[in-house]
Amino acid sequence: MRKLCLPVLAICLFALLPLRTVLAGDGLFPEVPKAKARYSETQECVEPLADMRKNHMEYILHQRDATVHEGIRTKQHSLTECINCHVSDAPDAPRYSSEQHFCNSCHSFAAVRIDCFQCHADRPVKSGSRTAPASSSGTREYRQDAAGAQFMEQLQALVSGGGNDE
Amino acid sequence: MSNDAKFDQYRRRFLGSAATAVTGLAVAPGVMLHQVAHARSADQPVSSDVRWGMLIDTNKCGKGCNACVSACNEEHGLSGHGRPESDAQWIRKVELRDRQTGNTQSLPLLCQHCEKPPCVDVCPTGASFKRADGIVLVDKHICIGCRYCMMACPYKARSFIHEDLQDQLPHAPRGKGTVESCTFCVHRVDNGGTPACVEACTAENHNAMVFGDMNDPDSEISQQLEKYSSRQIRADLQLNTGVRYRGI
Q1: Which of A29, B50, B105, B246 has the least C-beta neighbours within 10 A?
Q2: How, if at all, do strands B104-110 and B159-160 pair?
Q3: Looking at the predicted structure, is the pLDDT value of residue B36 above 70?
Q4: Would the CB atoms of B171 and A80 count as touching at under 8 Å?
């Protein structure tokens, strides 16, 4: 009886495979937007696809520390390059909050909550397309607190009669 | 001579010659590294052969000119809420007035990128750190927003992000609950560029800011530092700042 079980199970699973593609459009499986380009002739993404699906967070985490602390800015595992390739740069492209966004399409399916995009850009930004922020002009004074005032006094001492001997 | 003593003698001789050989080997690559440092490739870590620094000439700095501040805000997407008490300020213009003569001077103040940064000393998580090339940064992944560094900084150069942000730029990730400050435009410097403020100052024809490697005797900043007298602000704290001033 047990000997029979395994082949039957395998056949059942194979039978389900076409079902998966049918169901993909029905929201049971995530609809992941296609990337803009291939990494190379032989490889679709920066690492083999199965590896990326499982371990992309490890690659990004490693790159994060290398970049912030050591100034290593290679492109292969850079989050910015992920976004550049996987997210449309159209102005109305879905943001991370939408399930149409490449990252969130899977994360929402897998019930994963990340905080990358609280700080990082969730879509490509072309250089030159930046808009000047609202308060980009106007002298910014030191904050009007005790520490700010004290520092201004020390600075003032530099030019007022003598100052520090350096 | 006992066997032990003899062995010691051999060992010393061997270690001595080995050390000489190692020194000989180390010097040559060291020289090469120094030259390579300027054209560091993207996969090379930063090295302490370089120390980035800035020299600001207050006599050339335009009174009322705000180009460096605007350039910085634009480069990093620092948009304010019109609340100077809490808005991010990475670089500010300061006017100093000699009370005796009434003479006023104008200068930009930013993170001084100290060699011995007090902000790094007090950070409880290691988020505030100094890169090998002397640039003082906040690793916002590790920052818990305690703001000890803001209190420790003698220059009041750091800001805290109080509110949720949107539309940050890819090269300048910023987020609520973390501390931030001038990065010497590390994303530009790593690609061989100069900070946005320096570029803006040069574009205004003021040329009051010079940026470069203070460890390289041939760099413009090193030559100017050698030729002219310059000061560190709060030099009494002996922090060995990376930002130096002329004319104050």
Answers
A1: A29
A2: unpaired
A3: no
A4: yes
- B194: which 2 tokens? 């100069």
End-to-end CA distance of chain A: 92
> Which residue from A23, A136, A99 is spatially nearest to B69, judged by alpha carbons?
A136
Q: Does the pLDDT value for residue B220 go beyond 90? A: yes
Residue B242 near residue B113 (C-beta atoms within 8 A): yes
Cα gap A13→A136, rounded to integer Å? 60
Reported confidence tier of residue B224, pLDDT bands at 50, 70, 90: very high
Backbone conformation region of residue B167, classed left if phi is above 0, alpha if psi is from -120 to 50, else beta: left
- For residues B174 and A119, is the Cβ–Cβ distance under 8 A? yes
Interface of B with A in 13-52 (CB under 8 A): 40, 42-46
Query: pLDDT tens across B69-106, in order?
Result: 999 999 999 987 888 778 899 999 999 988 889 899 99
State the pTM of this model: 0.79
CB interface of B with A, residues 165-224, below 8 Å:
165, 167-171, 173-176, 178, 186-187, 190-191
Q: Do B156 and A143 touch (CB under 8 A)?
A: yes
- CB-based contact A153:B94 (threshold 8 Å): no
Pairing state of beta strands B128-130 and B136-138?
A: antiparallel
Whether B154 has its CB under 8 Å from any CB of chain A: the answer is: yes
Alpha-helical (H) ranges within chain B are: 3-36, 67-76, 118-122, 148-152, 186-189, 196-203, 220-227
Q: Is B105 helix (H, G, I), strand (E, B) or coil?
A: strand
Residue bearing tokens 């403020």: B197
Where residue B109 falls among pLDDT bands split at 50, 70, 90? very high
Q: What is the pLDDT of residues B146-167, one digit of tens each?
A: 999 999 999 999 999 999 999 9
Residue-wise DSSP of A11-80: HHHHHHHHHHHHHHTTTSS--PPPPSS-SSSS-SSSS-HHHHHHHHHHHHHHHHHHHHHH----STT-HH
* Cα–Cα distance for residue pair B165/B176, rounded to 1 Å: 7
Residue B242 has a pLDDT of 97
Contacts 24+ apart (CB under 8 A), B21-27: none
pLDDT exceeds cutoff 80 at B175: yes
- Residue B111, min C-alpha distance to chain A (Å): 14
